[in-house]
Structures are given as structure tokens and as C-alpha cells.
Design goal:
95 residues; mainly alpha; flat
Length: 95
């Protein structure tokens, strides 16, 4: 299994670059719009990609701390997505 790290490094680097590129495309959608739901979906994609980037970096750097960071970011992203979706549909967050 000595050849595994040499194969895994370029794959992880490629996945990091791909995730960063998708994040930039989603940032364009957040800035341009044209509607509020488009912007919300763009922000959700950015949050998901940030979680993916943290998890991929955790595997590439072999630091378990970044996996914990990815988990916390996923929880925060889920809660914020639910909150924004409720605000867009109902116009109010707290009843």
C-alpha cells in the first residue's frame, strides 16, 4: 500500500480545486441573483462546499481537527438554511 498516498494526493488536490471552483461559480450566483431563492441556493452551495473543502483538507493534511470543523460547519449550515427558507416562505422566523 505504499503507492496509495502517491495516488491519493493528486486526487485530493484535484477535488479541492474543483470544490473551490464550484464555490466561485456559486458566489457569482449569490451576487447576480436574479431572485432571492437563487441567492439562498447559492449560499447553501457555498456552505456545502466549505464543508467539503474542510473535509478534503483534513484528509490531505492528516489532521483530524479539520474533520470536527467540517462537522460543526455542516450543522451551522443546516440550521441557517432552514432559517432562511422559513424567512423566504413565511416572512417571519419566530412566530
Amino acid at each position: 500500500m505504499a503507492s496509495s498516498p502517491s495516488f491519493l494526493d493528486p486526487v485530493l488536490l484535484g477535488a479541492l480545486v474543483l470544490s473551490a471552483g464550484i464555490t466561485l461559480v456559486a458566489a457569482y450566483r449569490v451576487i447576480v441573483g436574479p431572485t432571492t431563492p437563487d441567492r439562498v441556493v447559492g449560499l447553501d452551495v457555498i456552505g456545502t462546499n466549505v464543508v467539503a473543502i474542510a473535509a478534503l483538507y483534513s484528509m490531505r493534511a492528516a489532521h483530524g481537527l479539520f474533520a470536527d470543523v467540517a462537522l460543526v460547519l455542516a450543522i451551522i449550515g443546516f440550521i441557517s438554511t432552514i432559517t432562511v427558507a422559513r424567512y423566504v416562505t413565511e416572512g417571519d422566523i419566530i412566530e
